[in-house]
Amino acid sequence: MTNEQMTNDKSQSLKPKPAVGHWSLIFALLLAGCGGRLVSLGDVFLDAGAFPGWTPAGEVELFDRENIYDLVDGQAEAFFAYGFEQVAVRRYESAGGAVLDVEVWQLATPADAYGLFTVSIAGEPVAIGNDGDADPGRRLAFWQDRYYVCIRARQELPDADLWGFAEAISAALPAGGERPALVDRLPSDGLVERSVVFFHREISIQSQLWLGGENLLGLGPGTDGLLARYQVGGAVAQLLLVQYPDAEAASAGLAALKGGGIAGLLAADARGKLLGAVFGEVDEAAAGRLLTSAISSR
User: Fold this and answer.
1) Domain holding 145: CATH number?
2) Which member of 102, 144, 160, 235 has the greatest number of CB atoms within 10 A?
3) Residue 254: which domain range?
């Protein structure tokens, strides 16, 4: 199953049904204020009185590349890897003392927003934005256009509260956003659902695939990459794809990978600007078939 097939019957069952009239009014007010598109990142947040039972615990805080360290000390590079521009955060409190944190991240492109979403998947698929990911009662995240949104509760809440905030923010953000074209290269047979990670830099995949930590493949803002898991027989393989700016860079990446002594490398090849490699414990013949299927001309 591919990422485009994430939404299923289970995801629909997770989504509560807020009162239509109440939220339609909120959406209309938000869209009227934004002209159908985002004017200022702070404009997407609900103000006092917009959501019964919840009030802002402070003003919207904005962080850019200069002060992002105040928000994510020691983790800024992970966001810079996706063209981070700015993030707005706001805390809300309920009448009963519950706390909800809302983050809206603005990245350079929709592909970057998709990428940041893919490294953040941790729950169940839900239908919000272009994709959605939820830990019911605790967290709801999605991406839309070049924005990544994450809503976290400090304690378990009714799903209707999480969805209320999420749908209001989604309505205030620009619609649309396409997944990177490279995603279409992934063979569907054996693909582990929701395992795909889109990246530009090695830091984004180091927790899943260790390539030495020294940018062996020459990755950077001009490269698009995918890492995905596959079930091959009774074993798991990882398929790595990297789209370089030119064929020369792809060939250099291939030579470096083959000479890098990376553990678990089973097969690697380059076709034009595209580098592909398979890692894992499957047999080499199966790895070769998976690699050929991914990098063959289409």
Assistant:
1) 3.40.1000
2) 144
3) 181-295
